[in-house]
Structure formats: C-alpha cells, structure tokens
Amino acid sequence: MLDVSNISKIYAAGDKALDNVSFSVPAGQVVGLIGPSGAGKSTLIRCVNRLVEPTSGSISLAGKTITGLSSGELRSVRRRIGMIFQEYALVERLTVMENVLSGRLGYVSFWRSFTRRYPAADVQQAFALLDRVGLIDHASKRADALSGGQRQRVGIARALEQNPELLLIDEPTASLDPKTSRQIMRLLIEICRERQLPAIINIHDVVLAKQFTERLIGLKAGRIVFDGAPTELSETVLTTIYGEEDWKTLDSDMEAA
Amino acid sequence: MSETRHPPVWQHRTTGKRLLMWFGWLCLVALCVLCWQIMTKDTIWAFVSDAPRQAADLGSRMIPPRWSYLERLWLPLWDTLNIATLGTLLGILFAIPVAFLAASNTTPSRVLVRPIALFIIVASRSINSLIWALLLVSIIGPGLLAGIIAIGLRSIGFVAKLLYEAIEETDILQVEAVTATGASPAQVLNYGIVPQILPAFYGISVFRWDINIRESTILGLVGAGGIGMQLQASLNTLAWPQVTMIFIVILATVVVSEWVSAKVRHIII
C-alpha cells in the first residue's frame, strides 16, 4: 500500500534528520513509530505527504509515486492521505463543521469553499463523522470552545472527511491526559479496523504503542533500528532505541494499565 | 588550615560592563548639555519673558468662542469624516494585497516580490499625510478627492505593515493541517491564514480610521478639503473666536471617534 524506500532528509542547516529509511505498510496495518525526541519521527511522516520535501529516496502510495509530483498532482495525492496532529491543528476561529468540511478542500472549487457551499453529500458525511466521534451536538461551536479530547476528535473527523486511503498520525495523545489518550487511541484503532485503513502513528508513549498497534518501528537518529511486533520489543531493543534506562518499570505500568 | 573559604560572589554585571554603562550615562548627559546650548543660541529672551502676557492676550481674544459659527462648520465636518472614512477604505483596499506580498510566509517570491512590497510600505509610511495632500493638491487640484487619496496613500503603509506582521505570526500548524488536505494555495489562505488574522485586521482598520480622523482635520490647511480649510480662513482673518470654535468641534470629533474605535476593538478582540 505505502512503500517508502531509501528516504533521506538533510535540512538546510545541515542536520541529517532521516538516513536511508525504508519500510512498507500493507493495507489495513496500523504501524506505531517510536523513538526519542529528535529521532526524525515527525519528519518521516511529513515526508510521506511532502509537507517536508525528502532530500532523496522515493515514496509511493498504491503504486503511485509521490516524490517528484508537480504541485497539482501532489494536491490530488494529499487529499487521499488524512493527517492528524499533536496540537490538533484545528483552525481555531472556524466552527467545528467548517473544520470537518475543510477535509474536502482538495475536492471542491475555491469559490465553493470560500462561500461554504459544499455539496450536500459532503455535509451529510461530515454530520455522520461528527456523530461517529460523538460530537454531533457541537457542530456549530467554534473549535476553540472545545476541550483537548474533543478537538482531537474533530481532527480525526476532518481527516476521515477526506475519505483517505492512509492516515498519518503525529503524536495524537501528546497533549492529552492518560484517560483521554486511551480513548482517542481506541477510537483511532477502531476506525482503522472498520475501514481497513492503514495508519502510521508517531507516538512517544511506549506503553500506549505496545497496547494499541500491531507493528512497531523504532527510529533512532534518523535510522530504523527496530521493526517488528510489539511483543518483540524487549528491554534490549528499548535500550537500542532510547539508550540505557531501567525498563522493568515499564512492564509493571503495562500490567497496571 | 588558616585559609578561609569565601562564599561565592554573584554580580549582576561584570566590572567592564559597569564601566561601559557609566560611560554611556556620561555621554548622555554631555549630549543634553550640548543640545541645550544649541537650542538656546538663537532664542531672543525678551520674547520668552514676554510670553505669558502674549498668551493671555491671545487667550482673551479667543474667548468666548463664536457659537453661531457652528452652523457653518457642519458641512466641512461631514467632509472631514468622509475624507477619513473613504481614505481609510482606499488604503485598506490596497494594503491587503501588499501585506500578503510582504509577509515572508505568503509572498510568492522572497527575492523579487517581497522587497517591492516592503518598499511600497516604507514609501507610504515615510511621507506624512499633509505632504501627500500638498503634492496631490498641486496634481489634481484642491478639494475632497485630494484629501481622500492623501489619507489613502498614507494608510497603505500603516495597515500593510501591521497586517503583514500579523500574517507572519500565524500558527504554522493550522496552515500545515489545511495544506495536508490537498487544498490549493488560495484555499490555504482562505482557511488557514485569514481566520487567524481577521481580529487583527479589524483592529488595525478601526485604529487607522481613528488616526485618519485626526489627520484629516488639518488637510484643509493645504487645500485638501474638510474643516481645516475653515481653520485656515479663520486664522488668516485673525478671527480668533472662530478658531476656538473649530478647536472645540475637532476635539469633540476626535473624542467621539476614539470612543467608537475603542468600543469596536473591544467587541472584536
């Protein structure tokens, strides 16, 4: 479904964020991307929809090469890839409905989006999604009137409004409390299952990652150092990814959770 | 064992920095003395000592204001308000595109377009409305139109500068999210940036309108219409009670416009 091969990214300042990264995600698989801060997790998922331009390598989605597309073609690929952000990244001063409908921007003309006259089917779908994430009553509220967990749900609805073939999820729970984090992760996983939607989830929290994903990729200093099932994530592997630490407490956290 | 351990000493500034600051203050004092000398060189002290008497004399001629003159001020006052309002609208109309071209995150080209936009802003800001009016009166003749365009030209720079700073301060994550949906550049502006700068835009516009009311009251001095023309006529004929009346009208207008602008900004922000 998604093929990433030999992606490298060197920023203008000379920092090497990604170093020859290759992996592929089959249809319907939810991949957790773990690693310390600055390992290149955000850069990697931003390379997939080219919010960050990779320096070398190629990425293809369902056989269509994304790297090297013209800006017009890139937009039509981007609308097939939904993205969910750490700080929700909703347009704060627009209503919840406008935020969800903005998932259709790649499909409607400027004039339609400017006058907010979206096709009836798009609006129906937006209502259905808001209902799915439990926010149907909040459609006319402004996005900045919602709580963190609610905003992230709007972010999820916006990404799904695109009818995506792939979800890129950047630290979905980093700004949320532990309970809301688990609810959001559960919702994301359920939705991916329902729609057979492949997803890449950047995640700091190893416990959550082990609990909710079926495959983990460990990134360290821009290189993949681990790729396997969550059960294979031993203390030695954690030490390779994050460095020396007492990892035993992590497992007791797991059992508690 | 006789060595005593001193507690570590913390200094806010090093000795070198303190000396430098002393020297800085010394230079400032020296500059003040020099300025005073230059300022008083050409002063005729006889006139200065006479000043209170002169002021009292002028004051007595200005009071009481000629209230009956008020009815001849309504039309010029209306003209003044029109100059300010239409001039502000004209300025805003041109300032919006200039601001988007000048902001480093929305400009189509940082090398070519941005410097031109910044130059337009600086050029507009560096010339006072009164001077714009002076130029325009000689180009398109005296009257309201010259005043409106003068106010407009001066407003472009002010509004565009504050607006492009607001554009540059927008949250990039919101813009990124809209871009990620596959939106076109125009849609990214419409959904990602415009909602973020709208409160700043309204605030800036009303603030500039408020400033323009004050500026347009004097444009008449150079023939660009409004209440300033009455002021000049009254000054030329030494009709001091009328001058007082005009001052009162201007003061009242400015107070009202400031009140309106404060109210509007309070509601929006």
Notes on the protein architecture:
The complex is a heterodimer of chains A (257) and B (269). Chain A is α/β, with parallel strands linked by helices and 257 residues long. Chain A has a domain at 1-80 and 198-257: P-loop containing nucleotide triphosphate hydrolases (Rossmann fold), CATH 3.40.50.300. Chain A is 37% helix and 22% strand. Chain A contains ten helices and ten strands. Chain A has helices at 41-48, 71-78, 96-101, 110-114, 120-132, 148-161, 178-195, 206-212, 235-242, 248-256, and strands at 2-10, 16-25, 30-34, 56-61, 64-65, 81-84, 166-170, 199-202, 215-220, 223-228. Chain A has a six-stranded mixed β-sheet, sandwiched between helices. In chain A, a hairpin with a 2-residue loop joins strand 4 (56-61) and strand 5. In chain A, helix 5 runs antiparallel to helix 6. The longest helix of chain A has 18 residues, at 178-195. The model of chain A has no long low-confidence stretch (mean pLDDT 89). Chain B is built from ten helices and no strands. Chain B starts with 14 loop residues before the first helix and ends with a helix. Chain B is flat, with a radius of gyration of 27 Å. Chain B has helices at 15-41, 45-62, 74-102, 113-126, 129-140, 144-168, 172-180, 185-216, 227-236, 240-268. Chain B has one domain (69-268): MetI-like (MetI-like fold), CATH 1.10.3720.10. By secondary structure, chain B is mostly helical. In chain B, helix 3 (74-102) runs parallel beside helix 6, helix 3 packs antiparallel against helix 8 (185-216) and helix 6 (144-168) packs across helix 8 (185-216). Chain A binds chain B through residues 49, 51, 75-81, 83, 85, 87, 89-94, 98, 102-107, 110, 113-114, 155, 158, 162, 168, and chain B through 171, 173-174, 176-184, 186-187, 190-192, 195-196, 198-199.
